[in-house]
């Protein structure tokens, strides 16, 4: 006897009606369709399409709501709850929320998704046969994306982060293009599932994009200067940096390039807000 496949849509027959709902049958196997999960009133013998999953007790349950995320079928799902050391629960459109395991989330919880973020997922099973939400791999993403046109260069772009790491973050844009944000093109590492806004700095030959989350140079000077002033105020008016400081030290502290630091520092010097002495910068 074949076990009913959970995580998929099945055509089943209404066997009988009970107080809590309908008992559905297929190949000698039964599943309960609760009244809350039914879209209509059904007569015995009627065939209906339902999505199957395990309820809290582990029994096979059915819903007439057919989610876009199923076994081996990918779509976006919204994060509804995040639990440390366990993972993130997502809403696929049915009463039961699906878990994205901690094993499929970034190592650092600081870049885990927040409620309201979205993940591109499918359904799979854990070792006990329970349904899990599984984020898409790079191979899956490669099959889903479109080739970006060259005219996108230097244009604003928005998208959702589907992969993030120390090296950089990858997004799928609203038009299904793949974009990569190098770590030097962001001030902070975006969360997995975060919707971000940036601009295209390169359209590559393979149809993917390089994206920057940093403002244009002329727009970023004021923001970077404010950051330098904030560091000065937090450190008693002196910081061990000047226009000849090591680029990595600058990036590690201010999360900007040395060139951006020099532009911002130059503005502050010109405005008379800071001064440099003995390799240090002082607040005036």
UniProtKB/TrEMBL annotation:
Which PROSITE patterns did the record assign? S1
Q: What does UniProt give as the signal peptide span? A: none
Q: Where is the S1 motif domain?
A: 154-214
The entry lists its GO molecular-function terms as: nucleic acid binding
> Which family is it part of?
Belongs to the CvfB family.
Q: What is this protein called?
A: S1 motif domain-containing protein
**Species for this entry:** Oceanobacillus profundus
